Amino acid sequence: MKVILVEVAPLRTDDIQTVRSLPLFAEISESHFGALMRAAFLQRFPAQTLLIHEGDQADFLHVIVEGMVEMFSNSDGEETTIGFLEPVSTFILAAVLVEKVYLQSARTLGPSRILMIPAQAIRDVFARDPAFAGSVVRELAERYRDVVRQLKSQKMRSGLERLAAWVMVHGERRADGLHVRIPFAKAKLASYLGMTRESLSRSFSALADQGVTVRGRAIFCAKPEGLARLARSTDSHEQL
Known about the structure:
Radius of gyration: 19 Å
Order of helices and strands: EHHEEEEEEHEEHHHEEHHEEH
Oligomer: single chain
Number of strands: 13
């Protein structure tokens, strides 16, 4: 078994302020937030480190301070990417709150700094701090809406339309068009969109009619309006 050395990093003042600014912790009392931070510790992980394993008991709430995390699931040797998380965000709140097992696994895609808050500390503060409890409910409601959006996309869009929507959501508008850089392997993007690598490649070729060109992981679209029509986007805050 490969042994991965994990560095425990000091929790800096700016890290604490970054966590405090998250909607989940914005309304919590100073005393309760201080209690959570005293119980927490910050770790540095190299790329491809398994952070949590599907089926294990939830023991920490994870806060991504730096890096990128892939959420995925495995069944009969087949792996499926469920989503990607970037700073500053948390996972997996629901399992922590109800003392259940993880329903998905997580690993780093690059060097990352993750704040680990013990699950019991989260549950204790949830029971004592009404403002924090309200923030938890809102956070879970937003996550539920994200799941519904993703389910709708899988059910109501073709693979080509899902790809177009992903490019629209993650693109940066410039004077000459839309620019996107895929921050991970194309195979992971294909898995996340419910496509094979071959169908992803064909879909990129099909998007040439919308002015899309692909060089490695760099995507450029000269006709964002046409791409938006193809994506059939109805929600400007859609997360795909």
